[in-house]
Amino acid sequence: MTGGTIVKQEELAKSIDHTNLNPDATVKDIERLCEEARTYNFASVCVNPCNVNIAHRLLHDSAVKICTVAGFPLGATTSGAKAHETREAIELGADEIDMVMNIGALKSGLYDKVYTDMRSVVDAARLGEVGAGRDIIVKVIIECGLLTDEQKIRASQIVQEAGGDFVKTSTGFAGSGATIEDVELIKSNVSFDMGIKASGGIKTAGQAIALLNAGASRIGTSSGVKIMAEALGEE
Q1: Does residue 168 carry a catalytic annotation?
Q2: Does the pLDDT of residue 158 top 50, yes or no?
Q3: Which residue in 149, 167, 173, 180 sits closest to 3, CA to CA?
Q4: Domains recognised in the chain with CATH numbers
Q5: Please, how many CA atoms are within 13 Å of residue 202, restricted to the half-sphere of its CB?
Q6: Taking a C-beta distance cutoff of 8 angstroms, is the pair 60, 38 a contact?
Q7: Per-residue confidence at 87, pLDDT binned at 50, 70, 90?
Q8: Which helix (H) or strand (E) holds 46?
Q9: Residues 65, 139, 152, 168: which is the catalytic one?
Q10: Is position 226 annotated as part of the catalytic site?
Q11: Rounded distance, CA 36 to CA 213, Å?
């Protein structure tokens, strides 16, 4: 297994958000995703909101969490729309929400607006009866490929200020994926307990392990099965 040896195979599996956010994903595609996640005991499946009910039906009796997205993939919907997506997804069975930051507001220096946008999702996930008694995780996608290093740092700090659990590097839809440099930059500018999800373009065990060694705690990938086959020496 390449890319470092400090990550055990079971730890690698438990770091993976097994993902299918394709717009043309069929019911059979989501069923296969869930079956694979159960087989390898991945951390979660990450699916579009319309597929949360399918994933919940198939995985509610397993340790695999249901992750979905809000404001995806552009982050340009209103805060109210993101909050509504969050509440509805949790009602359908989602355990984790990956929201996309308002990227344009961040790049415009409108940090209060960025904070309010993130906070609307955090509050929707944790306040009221929708998520009562459940530990709902909120990850914020800052889309590193569109930001300067200074903007990445400020965005990550706002995620922490707004009560997010993870900074996520990218959607995978903006032409740039996860890099070791971005993970290390985020890690050095947030508190020790802040999670980092590396996402976008991760296709090998070596890549995944290198990103975990750099400080990521989750890996978002549609290549989870391939990564585990490589890690287990099955390729």
Answers
A1: yes
A2: yes
A3: 180
A4: 9-229 (3.20.20.70)
A5: 35
A6: no
A7: very high
A8: strand 44-47
A9: 168
A10: no
A11: 25
Reported confidence tier of residue 1, pLDDT bands at 50, 70, 90: very low
pLDDT digits (tens, 9 = 90+) for 126-153: 987 776 667 999 999 999 999 999 999 9
Q: Indicate which residue of 17, 95, 98, 117 is catalytic.
A: 98
Torsion angle, CA of 117/118/121/127, rounded to 10 degrees? -110
Among candidate residues 56, 45, 44, the one with its CA nearest the CA of residue 88: 56
Instruction: Please answer whether residues 132 and 92 qualify as being in contact, where contact means their C-beta atoms are separated by less than 8 angstroms.
Output: no
Is residue 205 within 8 A of residue 221, CB to CB? The reply is no
Catalytic residue at 82? no
Three-class secondary structure of residue 217 per DSSP: coil
Residue whose tokens read 């990521």: 216
Q: Which of 217, 150, 233, 151 is nearest to 178 (CA)?
A: 217
Report the predicted TM-score, pTM, of the whole model to 2 decimal places.
Answer: 0.94
The catalytically annotated residue of 65, 139, 152, 197 is 197
Chain centroid offset of residue 219 CA: 8
Give the residue ranges of DSSP H helices in 171-219.
180-187, 205-214
| Tokens representing residue 74 in the block | 């552009």
pLDDT digits (tens, 9 = 90+) for 179-234: 999 999 999 999 999 999 999 999 999 999 999 999 999 999 999 999 999 998 87
- Taken as a whole, the chain contains a residue count of 235
